[in-house]
Structures are given as structure tokens and as C-alpha cells.
Amino acid sequence: MSLPTSVLAVETPMLASAVMEFFPNGIAPYLLGGLLIGLGTIIIYLGTGIIAGASTFLESTLSYVSKRERFQQSRFVESRDWRIVFTLSIVAGAAVYAVVFQGGLWTTDVAAWRLFAGGLLVGVGTRLGKGCTSGHGICGVGSLSGTSIVNVGIFMLVAIGTALFVAAMGVTP
User: Fold this and answer.
1) pLDDT digit string, tens, across residues 123-140
2) Which helix (H) or strand (E) holds 110?
3) CB burial class (10 A; 0-12, 13-18, 19+) of residue 136?
4) CA 62 to CA 158: how far, in whole Å?
5) How many angstroms separate the CA atoms of 70 and 142, rounded?
6) Residue 30: CB partners within 8 Å, gap ≥ 6?
7) Taking CA 46 as the corner, what is the angle to CA 142 and CA 76, rounded to the nearest 5 degrees?
């Protein structure tokens, strides 16, 4: 059974309008970014056998400056050189994209203190969840890890709940 043409004509603009509301610049940048992230994680995994989670990359980078036993584990120290290149490349790639495609490094209306506070909360969540959204969300879900699937579900519920709460409170950037 097929839908009448008049129903399709009404639903197509509504769908396009909904997509444009969530993706005002179109989906191409997000699609390309996702493909590049996926390709990068595949290359790292195939080349090293290491899951490309950003929190682990940060811990290995901290092995340069911290003498704490946690950061001096052989798995961090032995791979920290290429991991720091990877970590700096993430930051540099974001900076280049912002300058080239968005006209400057600071591309948000969110106050700096809120970004800092959000970063601290993400750091706490990363420790509690034993990994970050990139490790669990890209690599863990991709490998069908039950722990990662549960963690990503929790990440999403908390993020959606927080966004709804903040919006209901009338908070703006």
C-alpha cells in the first residue's frame, strides 16, 4: 500500500524543515566529520590495537608532566609520543575548521565560565564512566561492548535531561 501523493507532498517539506532546524548548515559537515572520525579510529585500532578514546589519550599525555603512578603505566608511557600528536591534531583540526569555515577561533555565544564548568563536569563523568564519549560512543558501541552501549545510553539521557532542564530554566548562552 502506498501513500497518496498529497500526503507525501505535505510530509516532505515538514521533514526538510525538521532537518534544517537541527542542521541549519546541512548534514554534509557532520557526515564528513563522522566519516573522518570513524576512519581515524579504524586506522589507529588496526595500526596499534588501541581504542582511540580521548580520555586515555589525555592520560597518556599527562605522563609527561605527572609522576603519579596512574599516569606512569607502561601502556601510557610507551605510546605517549604518537598519542600526543593525535591529541594535538584534534585541537589543531578544530581550530583550522573554525578559522576557515566559521571566521574565527571563538565560534560560540556560550560564556567562557560555562564552557569551563561544563568541561569539569565532562571530566568527572569521564572518570565515573571509565571512559569518554569517543571511546565508548565510537569504538565501544562499534565493537558492540555492552558496557559502552549502557554508558552511551546514560550519556545521552543525562545530556538530553540537562538540555531540557536548562532550557526550561530559561538559561541562554
Assistant:
1) 788 878 788 777 888 888
2) none
3) buried
4) 28
5) 27
6) 23
7) 90
